[in-house]
Amino acid sequence: MLEQIKGLHHVTSLARDAAANNDFFTHKLGLRRIKKTVNFDAPDVYHLYYGDEVGTPGSVMTYFPFPHAARGRQGTGEVGVTAFSVPNGTLRYWEQRLADQGVTNVRPQERFGEKRLAFDGPDGDGFVLVEAAEDGRAPWTNGGVGTDEAIRGFHSVSMRLQDADATAELLKFMNYEEVEKAGNVRRFAVRGAGNGANYVDLETLPMVNHGRQGAGSVHHVAFAVENREKQLEVRKALMDTGYQVTPVIDRDYFWAIYFRTPGGILFEIATNEPGFDRDEDTAHLGEALKLPTQHEHLRSFLESHLQPLGE
Q1: Residues 6+ apart with CB under 8 A from 74
Q2: Domains in the chain with CATH codes
Q3: C-alpha–C-alpha distance, residues 236 and 268, integer Å
Q4: Nearest partner of 201 among 174, 176, 175, 220, judged by Cα
Q5: In angstroms, how far is the first alpha carbon of the chain from the final one?
Q6: What is the distance between the alpha carbons of residues 190 and 70, in angstroms, rounded to a whole number?
Q7: pLDDT tens, position by position, 143-170
Q8: Sign of CA dihedral 19, 22, 27, 33
Q9: pLDDT at 310 over 90
Q10: Residues 231 and 225: beta-carbon distance below 8 Å
Q11: 126: burial class by Cβ within 10 Å (0-12, 13-18, 19+)?
C-alpha cells in the first residue's frame, strides 16, 4: 500500500477561452490565480493555476485553454465532476451568487448525506460545491467571497467508469479505503490525515460510451506526495505492480510522474515541493507571465500573442 499518497494535489482540465476561464475562477468562484505560465509541450497555450493564497496541494485547479478547441463529449473513462469544499450552511449563499453571476445549470443535490450544489463551468465542465462540516483549511478571501463562505479547496473528484472494479483496487493500493456505497457510486477516502482533499468517488455506468476529450474535459488528476523521495518510492511500487509510469518530470512548481489507469483516466503523482512561490513572491502570485526555462526565448512573441486575461 502506498502510504506516501496524502490526497488530491491538483486537477488539470481543458478550456477554450483563457479570459473566460480566468473570469470564472477568480471572479465567480473567488479563487486566486496563483500562476500564469504556459503549456510545456505547446508554449503558445497558457497553463493557468487557481487555488488558495499560496496554492496549497489539494486546492489547485489548473487549465490548458486551447483557443477554438471543440467541446468535449461527456462519457466514461474520465473525471466527470470536480467537487470543492465550502462551510456548512453556505449553499444558499452560493446558489444566489452563481445565479447572479450567470453560471448555468445550478441545481441542489445530495450524496452520502452531504448537501451539494452542482453547476457548469464555461465549457460545460462539471463542478459541485459540498458542505463540509470539519474543513479547517484557510480560504483565499480577496476574490470577492467572504471568509465564512469561501471555497476551502477540493473535496473530491468523481470518476465515470464502465467497470470500476480495477480502478477501485488501484485506489486501495494508493492508500484509499472504500468508506461508503450508494447505488452505482462508491466513495473512497485516503487513509490517515490526508490534506483535506481526501475523497474519490467511482460512478459505474456500464452502458455509457467513453467520453471524448475537449474543452470542458479533465485532462488528468494528480495525487499528492510530500517530496521527491516519496515520489520515487511510489513510482517503483507502481512499476513493480505492472503499471507503465513515466520518468520524473520537472514541472517547475512540483515534480510529476504519470500513468494510465485501468479505466483509462490519466493519473499523476505530484510532489508538494517546491511550491508556487519558487519564482514569485507570495503577495504577487499569478501576476507575471512565468515561462519554463526552455521557452524563455519565446517571451516577446508570447507576451504579444497570448490572450489578455484581465485581472
Answers
A1: 80, 124, 126, 160, 211
A2: 8-305 (3.10.180.10)
A3: 14
A4: 176
A5: 44
A6: 35
A7: 999 999 999 999 999 999 999 999 999 9
A8: negative
A9: no
A10: yes
A11: buried
